[in-house]
Hints:
The chain is an alpha+beta fold. 31% of the residues lie in helices and 26% in strands. The protein is globular, with a radius of gyration of 20 Å.
Amino acid sequence: MNDLFHLKIYCLEFVARATTPIEMGEYKGSALRGAWQSYLQASFCGVPPSMRSDPIHQQACPVCYLTSRETNSETRRPYALRPPLSRQACYQSGEKFVFGFQLFGNTQAIFPYVLLAAREMGRDRGIGRNPQTAKQRGYFELLEVNNLLPFTNQRIPVLKNGDSTIHPPSLAVEPQLISQICEQWLPDLNNGRTLKIDLLTPLRLINKEHLMRVFDPLVFFQRLLERLADLSEQYGDPPFSEKKSTLGDLVNGLSPMAQNIRLVQDNTYWWDISGYSNRLGRSQPLGGLVGSVHLAADDWSELLPIFLWGEIVQLGKNIVKGGGWYHLEVI
């Protein structure tokens, strides 16, 4: 099963320190993504806005490759945001906070822009607001950027404080790593232990045109399969369509196993939050399920790789604002 998704995903951690008070609210994903994207568009693409939707230009411009996909519901964005997990609404000058990006696809082209925009938005454009001066933004400095390898303790520096040298990321989540973690976890899971999912940021899923307000393992699994197939089609090497299986085959083959996943414990609740969307020009609902669930199954062999990939790629609505980030643990 794992060999269907030939993805390579780079995980970046940004450590920042506030240089003025910064108020971003309890959920900071919307403010971070808005400031980051605004800086990208204003600073790194010189063509008029009317030309940025041109497909030929998008192929040549890494910035428009990143941002143009925001308005196309048929494409998956080439990144996922990981906001600070603390619900601390305001940071005082000198306080640190951490956020991250997961990069899919042509990372060699987009990585420098992701990093530079994250650095410059903090010291040039600003973010959120400064509660001491109501109409001004808050500012921060980037202390370091690290390339992480999930499920391991590996990390390498990409950018150090005071150093102008940028080191391209070299640690990536690939099918081999997912297979290794499966080998480590499967004996315990198939021997009666449970899989705990900590929903770190709001999980907002649609099921039959309605929000999933109560955790449903089957809906969760099916939406995760769809996301992985789409990401693999657009960013996989080779793409998902070159495999013999279709998404329908995949769902039909795994659904009987997924239907046997048992919800042993449900400690989730709905966190009702919203954030402002510059594209829509209005407030946008960002709320979703947070908390934790414990799942059990008789045989995790075909199921576990899907859940592991999901921890890396995130799931549901508002992923570019940090939604749908979860963490797995065998209990």
